[in-house]
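Input set for joint prediction.
Command: fold jointly, output tokens.
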Amino acid sequence: MTFLFYLFAALALLGGMGVVVCRNPVSAAFSMILSFLGLAALFIQLDAYLVGTLQILVYAGAIMVLFLFIIMLLDVQAEEKRRFPLATFAGAGAVVTAFVILVVLVLNRGGTAGKVLPALNPSAPGASDTHRIGELLFGTYWLPVQIVGVLLLAATVGVVVLSKKELK
Amino acid sequence: MDWHLLIAAAVKIVVFVFLMTLPLVAMSVWAERRVSAAIQDRVGPNRVGPFGLLQAVADGIKFLLKEDFTPAHVRKTYYWLAPALTMVPSLLTCAVLPFGSQLFGEKMVIADLDVGPLFVFAIASLTVYGIVLAGWASNSKYPFLGGVRSTSQMISYEISLGLSIIPLVMIYGDLNLGRIVFDQAQNGWALLPLWGEGLSLKGFILAIPIFISFIVFTTSMFAETNRLPFDLPECETELVAGYHTEYSSMKFALFFLGEYAAMIIGSGLAVTLFFGGWSLPFGWLTPASPDAEVPFLHGCIHILAFFAKVIGFILFFIVVRWTLPRFRYDQLMRLGWVFFFEIALANVVLTALLLWWLG
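tokens >
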């Protein structure tokens, strides 16, 4: 199934390229969705069904819809005509180089990175990835989950307060 | 490469998706027209074939042969992409629905995933792109308004749709649709716990949150598939024809078919989760264990039972469409965010308390 890995990896990378290269913001958003779909397929190839499905459900299905929604309501034409100065390209090049160096350093660091870990047996009882993630989230890491929940609630309340002008 | 697996999957895809679901789409268009005619005291299409059954074929030929007109002011790439994006996700979700028990020792589900309902929601949430793109690419104001409406509507109801099945998942303790169906076959359907372990005080008490789930799920399903009383994205009194105003011939037909395919998959999921999928009532012809050998005849009966239930659910969809008037847009949003969202959340807590109390 190496062929499928290359196919979906290429899809994810092409999508990522598209986000940067496309002038039309809607095309860029769609490239991003394509990239998410490729990533989700890679997760599923690793037997991480839950993560792959959530990748589609949350990112491609919910967050990108909101992105697209906003982009469509804004004026798209202005962005298409914009010219970029040379400094932008130089900055982008610097970021890409730094990232590549970082990846190489991490892969050469030793430890678990770059090594192939033994595969888990997905058919063993209680070993489906959904089960494991659930146990970790609501067993081992229950406190951080609660804190993140409160944080998100605070953010939601904050958004409601900010968007209601008469409450100020 | 496991050739046996690949060939079995290919056969199942062809048979279930192309030989069963797609004809069912055509038949439900016919049923829609006949039932609506009966409700409005008309005759409906009855000229082509017996009872007008071949009307769908005639319509299909007409759509294919019509001039494929692309208006000059549209954004071409996305205008072409949109109808496909509406149709494909609906058919993709077929992959995880168990449409029968076994035939020739082969499980009657295309992909036996451990995250079945989540997969359906994930893929179904991609349907919105087709509609949004159609609205935006048409580059004219009524389709755009239709697209915007449908986006907000689908995002809103996705939340209550997802939350509404959490009580069920808590009760079954499983996300594999095949095992959920088998559990219902042995211990009573979720909404009809009248045999096996379901026939107990616990079964009856747990039927309460399941019933609430069912109401929220079905209503949200109507909103997700853009059916009346929630068909605001294509509300013809306000928006001409909504997001597909600028479309004609086969591209229009794809939107139309996508809507019906989504309806069939929605019905299939509802049947699987609440009415025991392929199983017959009272544990009749139920195999002893999920992996036990099922006789050929029983396997066929199970497939027929699944489709009988789905067709029943589709008829329910159709009758509701021709019975209820359309909601107003603010009413729709209030219903989704103020009522169903809260009811679904409260239902999760209620189920947790009941499960804790019943042990």
